[in-house]
Amino acid sequence: MQFKNIMNMKKFSLYTLTLPFAALLLMYGWNNALAGERGTKSDNVTRPAAQIYHNFCSVCHGDKGDGQSRARGSFAVPPRNYTTPEAAIELSRERMIHSVTYGRPGTAMISWKTELTDKEIEGVVDYIRAKFMRLNKNATSKAKPSAKLLASRGGMLYMQACAMCHGESGKREISGRMKPPPTDFTSPKIASQLTRKRMIASITNGRPGTLMKGYGSEYSKDDVEAMADFIREAFMSSAKPKK
User: Fold this and answer.
1) Which of 101, 170, 92 is nearest to 133 (CA)?
2) Which of 217, 181, 221, 179 is nearest to 200 (CA)?
3) Residues whose CB is less than 8 angstroms from the CB of residue 241 and which lie 6 or more positions away in sequence, other chains included
4) Which candidate, 215, 211, 239, places its Cα nearest to that of 226?
5) Contacts by 203-210, CB closer than 8 A, 24 or more apart
6) Which residues touch 145 (CB under 8 Å, ≥6 apart)?
7) What is the pLDDT of residues 167-203, one digit of tens each?
8) What is the pTM of this model?
9) End-to-end CA distance of the chain
């Protein structure tokens, strides 16, 4: 593939990859590195979901949907492991369709809406949910905060700034290059350690030695406090968090 074609890839940034994998893309071309069938979308033909997963998804998410691909060590945010109970909790069918359609900002997951039809996107999502997550298309997420909490100011800010790493359930096991992994807010041990003051400081200033950046320049003091309070009420209340 010509270099100019690689650079024309939509909504994908080489900055989300380590240099070795970026070099692989440049040396061998996007199609060879990611096995994607760019430019083959057709409203008249619906390709099998298994074929779509193999050609577009498996190079990052793995043949078994567990994220154990050859590329996994090259991403700052590792590809999603669909086989974990957590994935079944966090990933609704609607969210997955949205992610495949529009991509995931801050990760190497790009938008596929110009390469796959709506029907193909729904098909590959249902394939992933059935084969790797053991869910049917009508399955719903469980163990998430209440709709009322999610609709609060803190809930909306959490989903915007924190859920990518900490998950919609407050617990996410991250492997690959994200070490140490994000804090598990549902852990009683963590709840006993994290005071409200410490959490506000961490959100404001970040955590040195981790990928947790500071949000003090992006959000107001009230917004930061709202995020901390949401986390404490949504994920830590049953563990009696330290005040």
Assistant:
1) 92
2) 221
3) 191, 192, 194, 195, 196, 232
4) 215
5) 203/227, 203/228, 209/180, 210/180
6) 155, 168, 230, 234, 235
7) 888 876 454 456 788 888 988 899 899 999 999 999 9
8) 0.49
9) 57
Tokens encoding 53 = 């997963």
Q: What is the pLDDT of residues 32-64, one digit of tens each?
A: 344 444 556 777 788 999 999 999 999 999 999
Cα 230-236-218 angle, rounded to 5 deg: 35
Question: Quick one: which of 163, 182, 170, 181 has its CA closest to 236?
Answer: 170
Asked if residues 36 and 115 have their Cβ atoms less than 8 Å apart, the reply is: yes
Handedness of CA 163, 176, 126, 43 (dihedral sign): positive
CA atoms of 66 and 18, how far apart (whole Å)? 20
Answer whether 87's CB lies under 8 Å from 81's CB.
yes
The alpha-carbon radius of gyration of the chain (Å, integer) is 19
**Which pair of structure tokens corresponds to residue 144?**
């998430």
